[in-house]
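Blackboard transcription, Thursday session:
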Amino acid sequence: MLEINNLHVEVGGREVLHGVSLTIQDGQTHVLLGPNGSGKTTLLRTIMGFGSSRVTEGSIIFNGVDVTYKPVHERARLGMGIMFQRPPTISGLKLGKFINATTNIGTEEIPALAEKLHMTKFLERDVNAGFSGGEIKRSEILQLTVQNPSFVMLDEPESGVDVENMSLLGHAAASLLEKDMHMKTRTKSGLIITHTGYILDYIEADVGHVLIDGYMRCSGNPREILKSVKASGYKECIACQK
Amino acid sequence: MPEMKGFDEISAEDKERLNLTGINTENMEGRSGSFLLVNDHVYHAGSAAEGIETLMIEAALEKYEWLKDYFWNIVPADKDEYTKYVAERPQRGYVIIAHKGAKATFPLQSCMFLQGDTIQCVHNIVIAEEGSEIHLIAGCASSMDTKVGAHYGVNEIYVGKNAKVTSTMIHTWGEEVEVFPRTCTVVEEGGTFLSNYVCMKPTKKVQMYPTAYLKGEGAVARFSGVVVAGTGSYVDTGSRAVLQAPNTSAELITRAITNGGTIISRGAVVAECPKTKGHIECRGLILKDGIMHAIPEIEGHVVDVELSHEAAVGKIARDEIEYLMARGLSEEEATATIIRGFLDIKIDGLPPALQKQIDAAIDSADNEGY
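(Written on the board underneath:)
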């Protein structure tokens, strides 16, 4: 699905990622851990192609296509999707109109999906205008569900979300990643940034990575990594030269 | 005076331009009244709603003796060179009288059409008596064959006690036309005046600064404007509200885009009485080098007034474009979507038919691209 090789990325003239490599197979979900400011969000933004991240070296191959320098919408049309942590407000654009314009699953199912995510009354509101933390997440997951990407990136899906919303979101994210399907037939992949790991209660992840100061320090069983980080923080990862 | 003939003598091409301004040229369906002025000739005046009269100004002045008190009253004849020009010539225009308690279900349309190279002078008077409610849609356009022309328009609007007047003006002038409307409104106790202005098509020069005097307690005025100016257009517009009684309030909202033209966006709220509120909001986008000059003014004269303004001029935020692109829209589609949203001002109390007309006027310019 995704193959990142030796990726060097600058943000505002400063190198933030120093040669990151990562391979995600079809049907796999990976989680990305790391302290604040380690470059996790930059990695997601670079994969999606946002202008603030400049690739100086390395490549991003998506389903065999070199997308390293492709514009954002081409990557989206090739099947990438991202949940924003802090999306902008789009004044004058109704959420309902927006998802009708970007849907890849037709418009028929939209009302039912919106209802399931308690977003029906938000369809008539401007995108993200005055939405609370939980409402933004539900709006993002609704947008992603209708966009129906084959590769899903979630940037801290738990942040600012209460318990009830977490369950709604977790199940919606799981269904987006085809977690209800058998692993053999599942084709969708994901890359999830998490600090707390709560999302792993809903989504079984296959591989975990720790990113520190722009370097991939560790990869392995996601639950084991999370357990170790929870027990002793990232200092072990920094010391560990594995 | 030429015989009134209606819209039949207007070419199909020009009818289309009129339709863009929201004028229904085929029949009176969905309209409570209709008035057509081509240059200085009245072609059509009529009203289909009970208690509401649409008259030619000369006939109205003959019919109602008292009307002279409303004639050159809130707009003084010697205000400036344009009002003087109009005052010196035979009076052409309409008088709309909504009698006490009359309510029009549909908008009254008036159309000021400029044909050939000439100066059109118009003097209109609107009187909404106590408890009445009317919606006016004024479509102003010039013919395809007009190369050079001007429109001087005087409007005196009287909103009576607990009456409501909505005035929507859509401009579709030509690139060589200069327009100088002079409009004043008086709002009595409990009255509401909503003014909406849309100018999306290139016009050589528009200069206007309509003023509303809120004279009666609890009177409300809301001005909304959507302006787009391309290269060669010079649009100097705005609105002013003078709060002269307790519990009056005014809101002035503008969305402006320059695409190479000059926009001067004015706004003023003057509070002369305690317990009054006013707010000005002006947002401008510069898509191509031009001038966007926002001049919001708030002026309080007494204790216990609440006045505020916010003005912002900028470009489309990159993160907004990329957000839409991440859902699969191309950069051009994303930009157009954001601009359309920017121009989408919410106007409370506007009949759906008029909102639709405003949306259509904005969409038609939108579809031509920026």
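Lecturer's comment: The two ends of chain B are 43 Å apart (CA to CA).
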